[in-house]
Structure formats: C-alpha cells, structure tokens
Design a protein that fits this description.
Residues 5-59 form the HTH lacI-type domain. By secondary structure, the protein is an alpha/beta fold. It folds into three domains: 7-50, lambda repressor-like DNA-binding domains (434 Repressor (Amino-terminal Domain)), CATH 1.10.260.40; 64-164 and 283-311, 3-Layer(aba) Sandwich (Rossmann fold), CATH 3.40.50.2300; 167-281, Rossmann fold (3-Layer(aba) Sandwich), CATH 3.40.50. Helix content is 45%, strand content 16%. Strand 3, helix 7 (135-141) and strand 4 (146-149) form a beta-alpha-beta unit. Helix 1 crosses helix 2 (18-26) and helix 1 packs across helix 3 (33-46).
C-alpha cells in the first residue's frame, strides 16, 4: 500500500480512470452505482483522503450544504429526524452539512451572509417557511442555490425548488378517521392564524367536516405549547366537542389530558409512548428530495421544481366514543 495514497493509486486499484475517481468524489450523480461503489471501496482500502481545500480550488465547490438548527418546544423537535435524513442523503451525493443557529429571519440572513464569506457553501436548505418570509427572496436576488422545506406561502408560483408535506391532506384523513368512529362534533386546536403550515392543517379539518355537512365552528388557536393545548381542549370540550384534531403532537399531549379522542401531528416518539394516534411525516424522504432538488440545481440538471408529500395516519387508539 502506498505511504500516502494518491488519486492515481485509487484509479489503479479500482481499475478505472483518474477522471472516474474524480467524478465519484466530486460529481457522484453522474457515475454508475456499481462503479461508484468500486471506487469508494478502493478509497477505503487505500485510506485515500482528498484535500477539501484542494478540491475547492480545483472545482470551485466547497461541497457544503448549509441549514439552520431549529429550536425545540416542550422538549420535542421533529426537525432532528429531517436533519439526520438530510445529512445521510447529502453524504451519498458527496456533500457535507454545515449547521448554523439563528433567532429570526433577519439574523439568519446575516448568518448566511457571514457563512458565504467564511465557508462558501454551495447551497442552502431553508426550513419553517412562512408568510412574509424574506429569506428566499434574499437568496434568489443573489442567484444563490437553495431549496426550501416548506412551501412559498406568499408566492405559490415561485420558481425556486421546494419540498413540503401536505398538512391539509393529513388533517382531513385524521378528521375522517374520527368521523368513521362515530364522532360528529370534532374540534381543531391550531396555531395562531397567519401560520402557513397551521392554516393548511386547519383547512383539511374544515374540508372533511364540510364534506359531511358539518359545521367547522369548534376551533381554537394556541401558541403551540402543551399547556395552551390543554386549556384550548377544556374550552372546546365545554362547548360540546367530542373529539379533537391537533396541529402538533405537543398541542395534542395537552389536549389528551382532557379527552381521549385526540389525533396529533408529527408522530413523535412521545406520541408512540403514550399511545397517541398521530400523523407521521415522511421526513427521511423529504430530506432526500431536498438534496435531490438542490444538487440538480447545482449540477444544472433538469428536474422537478417542487415535491408535495403525503403524511400517514398512525392509529393507536379506537376512535369510537
């Protein structure tokens, strides 16, 4: 084995050209899977380590995708599963994930600007999109590659790539599940009006009730905490609600202290532990599609402009009263 393996050593070991080795390390998407595995096996066997600085000088790419770490609420954060999936998917495409923290949109834009000067990420993944969101516009104005996990709520025809989960379809399925169980006065506990995600999830509940000729009047807004979820549930049950659909598992855990007929959203480990029926988001697939759309843009490959995924209802309790 060479004292310090070179790209030529890897090429000879894998019986491929040096260009193929370079493609595997820099543009793995254009190499056949069998060849890619053979080259990576050679890299591992020889202990070859590419210089990140040299590669960036040669290709003009840092192979870094940057994303903000999301805050937790009441100890729960579904974003961790998305981040894990993003890291794995990025690695398969030859990228690493660069994490950063920010308190709000303005500080995130400032942080992105700083990262561009210090690390030169190839692209960005924005999360938690919302009405009046300035981040996508800032990146688009500078022609910086990015993808959003979340729809562009103010600009449905936006041209940047995005991936999202169909919250309305999820809460509609949850409401139908409760209707099939015999409930007719089904309430909804959401976030404050104006939240793109929250309003979308409320729309699915309302649509399911309207299809049955039922009034969607039993709704409450919260700050998203379990404590406010419980208070909202107490109010809705006092007004006659016999079941509740909740915007998140955090809110549902509060509601579950008031009535057993509750459906949450996110299917967190806590939901599984307490037996809460909940809507699971395909976060690993969402992360993989985010990487796919972003790397397509970076490689100038034609591809989808957006992806809308469906959540799945995980039933853990009999919905019948």
């Amino acid at each position: 084995m060479p004292e310090k393996a070179t790209i030529a050593d890897v090429a000879r070991y894998a019986n491929v050209s040096r260009q193929t080795v370079s493609n595997v390390l820099n543009s793995p998407g254009i190499v056949k899977e069998e060849t890619r595995r053979r080259v990576l096996a050679a890299v591992e066997a020889l202990g070859y380590r590419v210089s990140a600085a040299a590669r960036q000088m040669r290709t003009g790419r840092s192979r870094l995708l940057a994303i903000r770490i999301e805050a937790t609420q009441d100890g729960m954060n579904v974003f961790d599963r998305f981040l894990h999936g993003l890291t794995e998917s990025a690695a398969r495409s030859g990228y690493r994930v660069l994490l950063y923290a920010a308190d709000d949109d303005r500080s995130e834009i400032a942080t992105i600007d700083q990262l561009l000067g210090e690390f030169e990420p190839d692209g960005f993944v924005l999360t938690s999109t919302h009405h009046g969101d300035p981040r996508a516009a800032w990146l688009a104005e500078r022609d910086l590659p990015f993808v959003t996990f979340g729809r562009p709520w103010d600009a449905p025809a936006a041209t940047h790539p995005w991936v999202d989960v169909d919250g309305a379809a999820g809460t509609e399925a949850a409401t139908r599940h409760l209707l099939d169980g015999g409930h007719r006065r089904i309430g909804f506990i959401g976030w404050e009006a104006g939240s793109g995600v929250g309003d979308d999830r409320r729309a699915g509940w309302s649509r399911a009730l309207a299809a049955e000729g039922l009034d969607a009047a039993l709704a409450a807004e919260t700050d998203g905490s379990a404590a406010r979820g419980r208070a909202a549930a107490e109010d809705l049950v006092a007004r006659g609600a016999d079941a509740l659909v909740c915007v998140s598992d955090t809110v549902a855990l509060g509601a579950l202290q008031v009535t057993p007929a509750v459906v949450g959203f996110d299917d967190t480990p806590v939901a599984a532990a307490v037996g809460l029926t909940s809507l699971g988001q395909p976060l690993a697939e969402a992360a993989a599609r985010c990487v796919e759309l972003l790397t397509d843009r970076l490689s100038a490959r034609p591809g989808a402009s957006h992806v809308l995924l469906s959540p799945s209802l995980v039933i853990r309790k009999d919905p019948r009263p």
